Amino acid sequence: MDRGYTGTILKVDLTTGDIQEEVIPDWVYERFLAGMGLGAYVLHRDIPAGADPLGPDNMLGFVAGILTGTGSLFTGRWTVVGKSPLTGGWGDANCGGMLAPAIKRCGYDGIFIRGCSDTPVYLEIKNGKASICPAGDLWGQDAVEAEALLTERCRKKKMPRVACIGPAGENLSLISGICTDRGRIAARSGLGAVMGSKKLKAIVLSGTRKIKPHDRDAVHRLSRKCNRWASFQIPFVSGGMLGKIGTLMRMLPTQMAMDGLMFKLMLNKWGTTSMNQMSVEMGDSPIKNWKGTNRDFDAKRSQTVNPDIFRQCEVVKYHCYSCPVGCGGICTTNGRFSETHKPEYETVLALGGLCLNEDADSIFYLNELLNRAGMDSISAGGTVAFAIECFEKGLITTADTDGLELTWGNTEAIVVLIEKMVQREGIGDLLADGTKVAADKIGRDAHHYAIHAGGQELPMHDGRCDPGFAVHYAVEPSPGKHTVGAQLYYEMYRLWKKIPGLPKPDMLYFKGRKYVADESKAICSAACSKYVNVLNGAGACVFGAFLGADRIPMFDWLNAATGWKKSPEDYMAIGEAVQTLRQAFNIKHGRDPRRNIPAPRTTGQPALSTGANKGRCVDIQKMIHDYWQQFGWDTTSGKPDPEVIGPLVQAPITVVGERN
Predict the structure, then answer these.
(1) Same domain membership, residue 392 and residue 536
(2) Pair 400, 489 in one domain
(3) Beta-sheet pairing, 161-164 with 178-180
(4) In this structure, how many other beta carbons lie within 10 angstroms of the beta carbon of residue 195?
(5) Residue 222 lies in a domain
């Protein structure tokens, strides 16, 4: 039956060399969807409690969404899942590019790998035929070089798609990710180190199997209607003008509910770098390891990250699979790397304002260096900012830093330090596993300057500007991530348009209301988590979802692709089930949810005395308590009810009739 998903996963054991297929029953998809939901089901079932994240019992899963390849828009994302060596609990990382449809064209909804090889290998899959191949000659190559070699080696009639690790993953850096499409990276959770621990350099996918939705005409009809919103564009202001808009937003006592259509217009022209100066000015972007303000990286200094600087270097726009917007871009520079993916907002500000680095050329260089190395730019920037503050406080000296003067804005030192982190050389070995591990090794007061949630460095969105970010950094099973929820996100998702009873934000409201911890905000935060689990199960992009649930027909696409007749409320219930199962994974592995609260300074404790977020404090404990309550978890521990988990992962009983 045509239903969007394949109903099959591939399971590979690198220790034994065993390769087998597993048929996944329909009830699993109806309960968890595909993508991350399917990953949660398999990992919760198959990874034993207490498994070493870098040992053979950990499982790494590459999963694609139900909607990928069906003709729907914005549905080309893939997710890698596993037990995170960075946090010790649930780990996931999401990426675009072209890998997601390749997984399904090989005949699978997911590829799950356990065990450890004695020597470097890569996994090649051609239309359902998998083989483990030697990769000794590839070990040590950066991700872009390795991808090019494997593409040439394995290419027949059709170009294969490759996901691989670079030196950071090989060196088991806990802030390493997995790369594809010449430098795109599934960066978070340290899953590149899991791949490195398995001596798995890459997976190479070549498939031609068709992906068949239940009602292709309905999918296409919905896509045509959606594309009218996605392609809508008007003349826009300059990049420098965006910074002035951010200044105005900072100065006003009120705030308008954000319509994602405006964000789409910015994405289409500049990509995520459109937010660079705007976020600095309005207090969204953390500065100087979260202790600084927009005054430390003022309009003159932030001019060095003007969105137009990055757009002017763009030679061609980059579109992920099935995306009509194309927020990415390929840039040319005069530096060591002549070509690179356009740096994302997170990269620019993590390597820029967070470290007070004003050199755009260095950001271009480090972006490509980190992509090739397979190291998370968010965590890398956060770790450098931590090291600079430790140097400032005298916790480390030039005797520890290989002679580097780690001072704020010292571009040359920042570049050399990250190069050392990639190679685990000297001071880089201390920092290659992120701020928490480094702070534990340095000791004394270093943990005060380690900005993370549960071990994962925080992204470039300040919870003191939007408390919704702070909540999700703390409550998500994979903590410290910005791609799930915020008060801003809830406004753009426009879920109340599809789900009666969800709160509708006022068009205009006083900013002070954002900091009041109440039931309405908990409902909104929980709705964000549930909806993004649906998006990840569908293989959808959160940027597309920002256009609004009334413009992006996610629920209708899913019904058309599968033949189901589920309501939006049914899909949100699926999102809740996935969230509960991911949280249960953490509990199974001894991960205490209360350990995920971000560093105190990130929630205004103490509050800043100057700048855009002056005097702002987030009641994070109350907001966490209220969020857990929305899911029915224990409000003091964050643990789901064990009696809920059992039925959730068990097959339903089918009544076949009574005997006479």
Answers:
(1) no
(2) no
(3) antiparallel
(4) 26
(5) no
Residues 230 and 224: their CA atoms lie apart, in Å, by: 10
Amino acid at residue number 654? T
10 Å Cβ neighbour count for 15? Answer: 13
CATH number where 424 lies: 1.10.569.10
Residues 508 and 452 in one domain: no
Rounded-to-integer distance, Cα 187 and Cα 191, Å: 8
Contact yes or no for 490/529 (Cβ under 8 A): no
H/E run at residue 330: strand 328-332
The number of CA neighbours under 13 Å toward the Cβ of 246 is 24
> In Å, what is the CA distance from 517 to each residue of 253, 627, 635?
19, 10, 15
DSSP conformational letter for 463: T
SS3 519: helix
Helix (H) or strand (E) holding 83: strand 78-83
Question: pTM (2 decimals)?
Answer: 0.96
CATH number at residue 85: 3.60.9.10
* Burial (0-12, 13-18, 19+ Cβ within 10 Å), 655: exposed
Residue at 245 is within a domain: no
Burial environment of residue 573 by CB neighbours within 10 A (0 to 12, 13 to 18, 19 or more): middle
CA separation for the pair 316, 326 (Å, rounded)? 10
Per the structure, the complete domain to which residue 104 belongs is given by 8-206
What pLDDT, in 10s, does the model give residues 93-125? 999 999 999 999 999 999 999 999 999 999 999
Over residues 460-484, the pLDDT tens digits come to 999 999 999 999 999 999 999 999 9
Tell me which amino acid residue 590 is.
G
Task: Assess whether the previous peptide bond of 307 is cis (omega < 30° from 0).
Answer: no
Rounded Cα gap, residues 187 and 176, in angstroms: 6
Residue type, 130: A
